[in-house]
């Protein structure tokens, strides 16, 4: 991507200051400052950056951050790490950290765009950030909106509890908010790829991705309205939920011909919507307050950014509440996360250690026994690189619950799986197991 470029701004985003590939890219940028301006964006104090060894590399992320700290006073090296506090809901960085990432990047790039065009921008940086606070307050204080969101959570939660599906149907960038929210459910909650899916009016044309149409790669790569009309709508179940996401309240009538639960999220007044749904969330932006902060021209040009983040907050609430209802969360911890990357591998070990009170090494062994479905863990397995464990774990389901039950009960992997098969609500079986042990 950067081949032949003479001036590159590189922003590495890693909420916990831990992602190995971001660390490697930042180090490369620091070694080539004639071309690159390295920026790291995350939400931990720098001393809490991950210090674990990284495969095939001589550095840790903490060492990279320490080097950036040394260089930032004398070079164009930047650390953006406002500590916004812990993630209070399930520990998922898709929540506050995801929102803060969007706020910061949009503040940077809207200012850059306007400055490049006119040499000046009509607001102070702080004013643009304050705009998001105004939008947030407006959304959560809107009469009836949160009650409507709660109704959608209940519909969607009942759907997943009945082995149904949730379908986001959206247009443009608001539809992409739905795609992003759906994509976060498998790693966060161990959801199947069919539990929450997103569809866009123009499919991959809405993404404008370099590789173009990827629908030939399989069922879950098929994301256009036409795909949904052909493959989903004829087979929807009465307890499935279709959630329409639109700015103006208009919905493609072809997408409404389904006998299931329906919800609408829009920025149009309720009186202007023409489709029949079970529940509507009708939002509006605080136009006058935003104009007073950033000016009318900027509001007209960038109001979609505020619609997007409002939509993100609502969709995050829906899928979080839905998976809580399905029993994927225990004591505010996402206990059925997918062990699909380095961060989640270490988080899984931490969850096992927290509830079993085993040592770190014994907790790791429990996780590995679950991944490899064995009670006799060989030294060869223990010594494999973490990347091998992640590769083995990613396609599997219930890895962490199985490991956690084995740890609490000191039982075999097959016995813990038998308990999960008997009681599929993970929160319930963990709670019952811990209660039994404590008694």
Topology:
Elements: E1 8-13, H1 20-30, E2 36-41, H2 61-71, E3 78-80, H3 96-118, H4 125-141, H5 145-161, E4 166-170, H6 172-189, E5 196-200, H7 204-207, H8 225-231, E6 241-246, E7 261-266, E8 279-282, H9 287-294, H10 296-325, E9 329-330, E10 333-334, H11 342-356, H12 360-372, H13 379-382, H14 386-393, H15 399-409, H16 413-422, H17 426-438
Parallel strand pairs: 1-2, 2-3, 4-5, 4-6, 6-7, 7-8
Antiparallel strand pairs: 9-10
Helix pairs in contact: 1-2, 3-4, 3-10, 4-9, 5-10, 6-10, 9-10, 11-12, 11-15, 12-15, 15-16, 15-17
Note the main sheet.
5 strands, parallel
Give the count of helical stretches. Answer: 17
Structural class: alpha/beta
Share in β-strands: 5-15%
Across the major sheet, the strand order is 5-4-6-7-8
Write down the Rg.
23 Å
Mean pLDDT across residues? 93
Give your account of this protein's structure.
The protein contains 17 helices and ten strands. It has 439 residues and is an alpha/beta fold. The strands form three sheets. Strands 5-4-6-7-8 form a five-stranded parallel sheet, with helices on both faces. Strands 1-2-3 form a three-stranded parallel sheet, with helices on one face. A hairpin with a 2-residue loop joins strand 9 and strand 10 (333-334). The longest helix has 30 residues, at 296-325.
In short:
This protein has 439 residues and is of the alpha/beta class.
Question: Can you tag this structure with a few keywords?
Answer:
439 residues; alpha/beta; 3-stranded parallel sheet; 10 strands
């Amino acid at each position: 991507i950067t081949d032949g470029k003479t001036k590159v701004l590189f922003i590495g985003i890693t909420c916990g200051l831990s992602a190995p590939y971001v660390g490697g890219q930042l180090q490369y940028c620091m070694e080539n400052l004639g071309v690159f301006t390295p920026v790291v964006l995350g939400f931990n104090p720098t001393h809490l950056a991950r210090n674990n060894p990284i495969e095939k590399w001589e550095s840790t992320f903490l060492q990279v951050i320490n080097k950036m700290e040394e260089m930032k006073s004398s070079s164009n090296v930047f650390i953006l790490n406002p500590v916004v506090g812990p993630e209070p809901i399930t520990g998922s960085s898709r929540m506050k950290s995801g929102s803060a990432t969007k706020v910061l990047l949009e503040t940077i790039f809207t200012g850059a765009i306007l400055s490049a065009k006119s040499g000046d921008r009509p607001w102070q940086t702080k004013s643009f950030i304050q705009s998001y606070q105004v939008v947030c307050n407006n959304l959560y204080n809107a009469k009836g909106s949160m009650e409507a969101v709660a109704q959608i959570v209940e519909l969607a939660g009942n759907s997943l509890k009945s082995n149904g599906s949730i379908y986001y149907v959206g247009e443009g960038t608001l539809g992409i908010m739905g795609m992003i929210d759906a994509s976060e459910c498998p790693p966060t909650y161990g959801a199947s790829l069919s539990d929450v899916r997103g569809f866009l009016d123009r499919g991959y044309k809405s993404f404008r991705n370099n590789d173009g149409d990827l629908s030939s790669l399989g069922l879950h790569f098929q994301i256009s309205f036409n795909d949904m009309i052909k493959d989903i709508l004829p087979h929807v179940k009465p307890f499935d939920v279709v959630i329409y996401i639109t700015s103006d309240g208009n919905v493609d009538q072809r997408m409404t011909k389904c006998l299931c639960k329906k919800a609408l999220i829009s920025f149009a007044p309720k009186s202007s919507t023409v489709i029949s749904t079970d529940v509507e969330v009708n939002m509006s932006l605080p136009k006058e307050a935003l104009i007073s902060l950033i000016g009318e021209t900027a509001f007209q040009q960038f109001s979609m950014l505020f619609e997007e983040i409002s939509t993100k907050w609502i969709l995050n609430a829906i899928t979080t509440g839905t998976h809580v209802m399905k029993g994927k969360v225990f004591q505010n911890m996402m206990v059925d996360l997918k062990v699909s990357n380095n961060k989640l591998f270490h988080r899984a070990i931490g969850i096992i250690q927290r509830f079993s009170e085993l040592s770190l090494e014994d907790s790791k062994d429990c996780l590995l026994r679950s991944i490899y479905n064995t009670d006799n863990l060989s030294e060869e397995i223990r010594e494999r690189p973490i990347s091998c464990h992640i590769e083995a774990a990613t396609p599997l389901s219930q890895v962490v619950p199985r490991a956690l039950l084995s740890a609490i009960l000191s039982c075999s992997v097959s016995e813990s799986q038998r308990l999960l098969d008997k009681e599929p609500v993970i929160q319930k079986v963990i709670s019952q197991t811990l209660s039994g042990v404590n008694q």
